[in-house]
Amino acid sequence: MKLGREALFFTKPGNPKQRLYEALRAIFVERLKAKEVAKRFGYTVNTLHVQASRFRAGALRSFFAQGKPGPKSRPKRDPVRDTVIELRKKNSSVYDIARVLKEKKHHLSPRSVWEILREAGFARLPRRLDEERPQHAKPEPAAKADRRQLDLSSGQSFHTHAAGLFLFIPEILDLKLESHVRKAGFPGTDAIPALQYFLSLLALKLIGKERYSHVMDCCHDRGLALFAGLNTIPKTTALTTYSYQLVRRKNVRFLESLALSARETGAIVGDSINLDFHSIPHFGDESVLEKHYVPRRSHAEKSILTCLAQDGDTRAFCYSNARLLKRDVADEVIRFSRFWKKATGNYPRQLVFDSKFTTIEKLNELRKLNIHFITLRKRTRRLVADLLQLPKASWERCTLDVPHRKYRTPRVYESRVHLKGYDGALRQIAAIDLGRDQPTLLLTNDLHSSPKAILTRYAQRMIIENAIADGVHFFHLDALCSSLQIEVDFSVILTVAADILYHNLTRKIRGFEDATAKQVYRKFINSSGNVTIGRREIYIAFNRRAHNPLLMEAGFDKREVRIPWLNNSTLRISFL
What we know:
The protein is α+β, with helices and mostly antiparallel strands. It has 21 helices and 15 strands. Among the domains are: 8-56, no CATH class; 78-132; 354-460, Transposase Inhibitor Protein From Tn5, Chain A, domain 1 (Alpha-Beta Complex), CATH 3.90.350.10. It has helices at 8-11, 16-28, 34-41, 45-56, 81-89, 94-103, 110-119, 169-175, 177-184, 194-206, 222-228, 236-243, 248-265, 332-344, 360-368, 381-388, 451-459, 462-473, 485-506, 517-525, 548-553; strands at residues 157-160, 272-281, 291-294, 299-311, 317-324, 350-352, 372-376, 396-397, 411-417, 426-432, 440-444, 529-533, 537-542, 561-563, 569-575. Strand 9 (411-417) and strand 10 (426-432) form a beta hairpin. It is flat and about 100 Å long.
């Protein structure tokens, strides 16, 4: 007789305990032989004899889980039920009630309070006015940001947790950021001029604040406000609303001026530049953003595609564009080249990027602009097979000038290739023994540099990926304050400016020339101190810290500069 699907639940049990139960039942109730039962349920005869012996001895009795009955009462809610209802009749919210109960040593969550009220038939309270709420301690509101209320009268002294920010003042003046903000045409008001808005947002980047909303943690710090030239830092709403007014055209003008002054200060050399894309993920449910591949998550999701350029010598960021769409990706290398020409007067000598950054046709345009490039070529089966069939004598051994690299002695094979869309021949350098199963293929129009130099330079391109990782971890590059690209574009530009400032600062501190921004912030910038305002001076006295001698050796306590946005007051720094 054919058994139905329901019967198979008993004859072919999937659960191990149920299978053993059915086997033992067949032995003791149906009186079947052990050999027949073992075959039916997939046991050996010996195993079944052992389990039957255990059952006779009382070792196997818990085949079925026993449900534990729930409590008949609620020991935390029931004693305070009447108190909760009485307080709600006085127009108290669930949070007010939970607070009162806590003072009476009854710890009940607002959620549990609401469950009591809902069972008693109470509806939610309508929004109340401040005077209708119970009187208890509330957060102290900070003053409204207004430059006209900044008090620089002599004799004031106060403590600040942002003393380290004033180490950037000389670097800000050397970079001429005040002039760049003015030339870019950033908007401002009488209460908060454009420079004060910019310095407020820049300060949050320099101290590693993750989001604009975190400004509320330090809105009472007078030292942070003094750095920006205000009586207090603008609040969250003012900062986010301000960013909505910014457009890409003005951001590009700022970047052009910044790139030029960064070259003058030595923060950027501009000879060889790394280019890369970074997808900033968007975590909201609703957005009109395109999907791009996010390496950290190993899949494509809604994100903002950002182009970042990094100086190959100093490793400082020098350009960004967070207004890219998929249709603009291939053109970005030409757009950057023209940006650099306008900013500095010359095209970059060399660009280094990976294979997916642009197309062969755009490489041809770079050739017409006399720009050297180094990029990867996509491997195909036929290419790999042809290379692996070459005799060993065709490969030459070279040593890469990349310290601490595990694979420094690859074998290379050089050839000329012609690709559709490119006028003329390209130089192809294949390399093996680099720690990969397949050869690495490089394409370049640099026909004179040695293969060793080309391979070494491309290996150094990885530093832009490390810099992007640092930007994500310290400058919070991926922490979007909204899904609007225009706002993110300005946030990334602030990251570029902050990165340049950190590079200029670290070059002055012996032993920290190659330190990351996070390391420099932890050891030097994250310092508290006392601010004293004199007649025409502002004194910053740093509290004692282990690394202060390095700052003194670098001469930070000897350099005196006048701060234009603080009535040309002279900054004087000292260390305890």
